[in-house]
Design brief:
The chain is 21% helix and 20% strand. The chain contains 6 helices and 12 strands. The protein is extended and about 50 Å long. The structure holds a DNA duplex. This is WRKY domain-containing protein.
DNA sequence: GCAATTTGACCTCG
DNA sequence: CGAGGTCAAATTGC
């Protein structure tokens, strides 16, 4: 509470940094591929700085997800989901007070015969499949996973994976519960590496965030953000598809939610403040990345609240996009505090 | 032989 | 009562 000034200062700093990142981004759009990569590199520095600032002000962070160690069931391939706190995520209450966080992930191109599980990217956690069910009106079955360490460490995290009907390369991943285990395995921890933000508005527009951390020897920089996001992958790509048009951005670095907002504040499909789509009106997915501006956005986004399993439906509707600028959350601990916006 | 996955049965909630 | 979610025996793979 007495940190208000500090917070404001931080916000100011973040604004400046993101402006720099934004400038860089704009500049890069005029460069050729070669130089663009460099520009992106510079941009990533801004992102790093933003990350640092965010992590500094972030006070309530908890565990970070973890590591690469692709395990058995969960997701053999690559990367992505793990940290619910970033990316296109939806938090919804399903049955009896259980909160679920859903994100869309870009998986591998379906290869005939290959089971879904083999196509879903790895999220850094070890999962063990315990069931599969065909869902009504869904072409593809839904797979149920639980943390591999449920037994040893009583980790209650659950995960559901279901391939999208429309785009078979997209997987809808739903997380439930939180990891209480200490999956600190290797170095490559991953967070959501791939997130999809469908923006089905007037034109079939999609923004795909693709993190590539597969070959990233982690490094040094490991900033702690929200409860579950960690950082590591230095690169990812963003591609947007719009009626045949496709553009991509590489090496933007830091998947950390915060840097995201920073790197893309105010550009193209991203409006300043958060990572949001522009002109969205009524699509079904939210597309907001933690804003570097919202003081507590990054740090406090603890979904963590297992204390008493949140019971409300929390989700971010597209409509909130316009308001993304001042996404300074009212409730420090909840990044997406838009109760009924999303229906 | 152990651990993970598969899959049909069973359970729970709306 | 049906759909979604979980259990657990059987199966498969290392």
């Amino acid at each position: 509470m007495e940190d208000e000034n500090k917070t404001m200062g931080m916000n100011r700093l973040l604004t400046i940094l993101s402006e720099g990142a934004d400038e860089m981004r704009r500049l890069s759009s005029h460069l050729n591929e070669q130089l663009r990569a460099d520009a992106m590199n510079v941009q990533s520095r801004f992102s790093q700085a933003i990350d640092i600032v965010n992590s500094m002000e972030a006070t309530g962070m908890h565990q970070m997800p973890s590591q690469g160690h692709t395990t058995a069931s969960g997701s053999p391939g690559g990367s992505f989901s793990g940290s619910p706190s970033e990316g296109s995520e939806r938090i919804v209450k399903k049955r009896k007070g259980t909160v679920k966080r859903t994100i869309n992930v870009q998986g591998t191109v379906p290869d005939d015969g290959q089971p879904d599980t083999a196509l879903v990217p790895d999220d850094g956690f070890s999962w063990r499949k315990y069931g599969q069910k065909s869902i009504l009106n869904a072409k593809h079955p839904r797979s149920y996973y639980r943390c591999t360490f449920q037994k040893n460490q009583n980790c209650e995290a659950l995960k559901q994976v279901q391939r999208s009907d429309e785009d078979p390369t997209i997987f809808v991943v739903t997380y439930q519960g939180e990891h209480t285990c200490t999956q600190h395995v290797g170095k490559t921890q991953s967070l959501e590496h791939q997130l999809l933000i469908p923006m089905q508005n007037e034109s079939d527009e999609h923004v795909m965030i693709n993190f590539n951390n597969s070959n990233n020897p982690i490094g040094t920089h490991e900033s702690v953000h929200d409860d579950q996001s960690k950082i590591v992958s230095p690169s990812f790509s963003i591609s947007s598809t719009q009626a045949g048009l496709r553009s991509e951005i590489y090496n933007v670095f830091s998947p950390s939610s915060t840097s995201f907002g920073g790197a893309f504040s105010s550009g193209g499909a991203f409006s300043s403040g958060g990572f949001v789509s522009s002109g969205a009106s009524d699509s079904n997915y939210l597309s907001v990345f933690q804003s570097p501006f919202g003081a507590d956005f990054g740090g406090g986004s603890s979904f963590h609240g297992s204390e008493s399993e949140l019971n409300d439906v929390i989700s971010v509707p597209h409509s909130s996009i316009s308001a993304a600028n001042d996404f300074t959350v009212e409730q420090p601990n909840f990044p997406f505090d838009s109760p009924d916006l999303f229906k």
